[in-house]
Every structure is written in structure tokens, then in C-alpha cells.
Amino acid sequence: MRMYDIIHKKREGGELTGEELRFFVQGFTRGEIPDYQASALLMAIFFRGMTRRETGDLTLEMARSGDTVDLSSLPGVKVDKHSTGGVGDKTSLIIGPIAAACGVTIAKMSGRGLGHTGGTVDKLESIPGLRTDIPRQEFFDIVKRTGLSIIGQSGNLCPADKKLYALRDVTATVESLPLIASSIMSKKIAAGADAILLDVKVGSGAFMKTLEDSRALAQEMVRIGSQVGRRTVALITDMDMPLGRHIGNALEVQEAVEVLSGGGDSRLRDLCLELSANMIYLGQRAETMEEARAKAAEAVSAGRALQKLAEMVEAQGGDPSYIAHPEKFTLSPACVELSAPQTGYITRLDAEGCGLAAVELGAGRETKESSIDFGAGIVLLQNKGDRVEQGQPIARLYAQSEALCRRGKERFLASLEVGELAPKRGPMIVERIAEEG
Ligand code: URA
Description:
By secondary structure, the protein is of the alpha/beta class. The chain has 17 helices and 13 strands. Helices cover about 45% and strands about 15% of the residues. It has a 4-stranded mixed sheet, sandwiched between helices. Strand 4 (about 195-200), helix 10 (about 210-225) and strand 5 (about 230-240) form a beta-alpha-beta unit. Helix 1 (about 5-10) packs parallel to helix 3 (about 35-50) and helix 5 packs parallel to helix 11 (about 250-260). Bound molecules: uracil (URA). Uracil (URA) binds near residues 165, 184 and 207. One of its GO terms (cellular component) is cytosol.
């Protein structure tokens, strides 16, 4: 078999066989196929697409390219969740504890933030003492004890995806449906859960800007999950504006605690309750979605979900008093308050722009090597659709210095528009996609 023939076949619109995809994934992972040939194939896939069978085969080959996690020694149905990335997305910190408080087993590996999107591992590490770099056996012991653990990715999981994603990033081949679907699902399959919940974002801050594209991605991933025997459900959710009111690591833990205490931003709370209900349903702790929704709401109102987060924090070496008293978090010392430039409605508060402002403030990473300031970020006092008076405070920015605050302020203001007419604010949860329809 020759890589040249595989590239040629795809360039002409042919369908690659399972053997051809295995040859490519294995050869590329081992370093036997050079980047220039892999890049050519990625570009051919970008333009020609893939059939469902090809996407499924590519996913499985990538999932098998390194270690896989065997969660079978853990009790119950293990449910994982993946979000396609967003700004202010602290949902894992909220829905993991809610679902675990309802008896679902959550043994989750999460990522770090990059660019305008944040990562759960960074948010967790803003809790003093908390470890996310936990050896496999200890991770399993915590899950057996508490029903919940969220750690960083460890081991050699999906090396093919790591290499391919880095190449896609520099060859303008990220935005390809079969490549995104296989990249996400290969990691979820290798991570070993029995069932997978996908939060597919749509809007200005998302990979997929239109409903049509996000629906196609969600359908493809749900189909791949079912094909490999993992029950998979996708929710398509809004990412046109930041999720909730806090952007930044310690700030987002504070907001997660607020929601777990029964308060917080209503759109964020609604999304978290619906995501948790889906996890409870997938984890077979409820027979219907109605029952699952009731269980999720009860876990919050009874305080069991918040208690579950504190248990996990303590089990991972963190100081649980920060969960009981989130005001203990130290925020960055320089703070500026921004006010509305005119009276009217906030007609645009671009999620990606706010995410980039948070990076300028020090809350995110420009490159994988950048360090982050856990106490930096943005508190939105108003969000898209809110009515504001000229001069009314709309956001507070936190950073290590006033110079950083100024940089963040510039970015933030570029993502904001105030106009006379109230904008249409679409629903938070746009669609649910499951194999059974
Ligand atoms: N997230 C991933 O993990 N992979 C992609 O290709 C896109 C988003």
C-alpha cells in the first residue's frame, strides 16, 4: 500500500477502505508517513468529505492509536460529557456533581483551555491544593468512594489525534465535519465511558456558526457513538454570548458553586439542569427524561450536588472550604469597571471576543506553553439582551496590572454593541439529538 495512492484516491472523490485508513493512521502515528503527505490527505478530505463508514473507521483507528481506558472495574453506567468548547463554559463543574449525586458514575478526563475557550482542568486547579494529575489507580479509588472524579488527560490517549490536530491547526483543515467528529469521538471512545453526552455549541463563539452545521456535526457524532455501542445524546446549545456571568478560572468555580446552591444566571442554570438530566437518563438512573429532570432539580435543591462537589475537591487534595465559602478565592489585584457607552439594549456581546479579552487579562492561554492567572477574568454585570443606561456598570475586569486591564478592556469593548432595539435572544437549548429520534 502506498500513501500516494490513498491521497490520489481521496483527491478524486473515492471512498477509502478500512485498511487504507488503518495504514494512514498507524503510519502517521509511528512517524513513517511524513507531515506533507498527511497534510495533502487532510486537505483532500476537507474538500471531498467522507462517507459515514469512512468517518466511523477513521474514528476507531484513531481511538486505537494509543492507550484506552478500561472503566469496567467501576460500578454502574459510566457517563462522559464533551462540550465542543465555549466561553464561560463551567458546566462540567456543575453537572458532574449533580449527576453523581443522583447515582451516575462520573470518571472524567478533561482538558486545559487554549485560545478563547477555557478548560475544566484549569478551573479545577484554581482551587488551592486540588490535583488533576492523579495516577490511574487513585483516580479509580476516588470514583469508587465518591462516584465522581475529574482529572487531566493522562497516558498516551489518542496520539493520532494529537498529531493530526496539530497538523490541521496549521494547514487550515480544522473546520471539516468528518475530521472534527472523528477527533472528538475517538477521544471519548478511548476514555472508556459507556455513554456519552455531547454539548454541541452553535453561534459566534462556537466552531460551528450555523444551526445546520452544528446539527450535522451532532448527528454524525451520535451515529458514531451508536455504531461503537456507546449510547450517545447531543444537545445543540447557544454560544452566541458568553455562558453565565463569570469568565476566568477562580471566577467560574465561584459561579459553579452559585448554581449548585440554587442561584446563578438562569440560562446557565437551565442548561446545566438539562445536561444533568440527560446524564442521569443515559446513566440509567431514570426511566424518562421527565423523571431525570426532577431528580436533577432535587439534587440541587437538597444541597446534595454541592456536597458532592466538595467531596470530590477534598478527595483530590483541594481545600473544600473554598466550596463552602467561594468568597475566599483571591481575585487578581487590578480591577476596572466598564460602563455602558450609551443607553439602550446590549445587542451584541460576542462570546469569542469576551474569551479573547479574558486571555488578554491573563485568564487564558495564547499558546500551550503560556501560564495562566487563576484570579483573572471578567464578571458580566449585564449580558446580551439586557437594557442599560448610559454610564451604568456592565462588566468588571480583573488582572495582575492596570496595563493588562486596559488591553482586556479594548478587546471587550470591541465585542460589545449597544443599540436601540432589543435583540432576539434565542433559546439556550436549541435541539436534542439522540439515535432513537
Ligand atoms: N475539538 C476537538 O477535540 N477536535 C476537533 O477537531 C475540534 C474540536
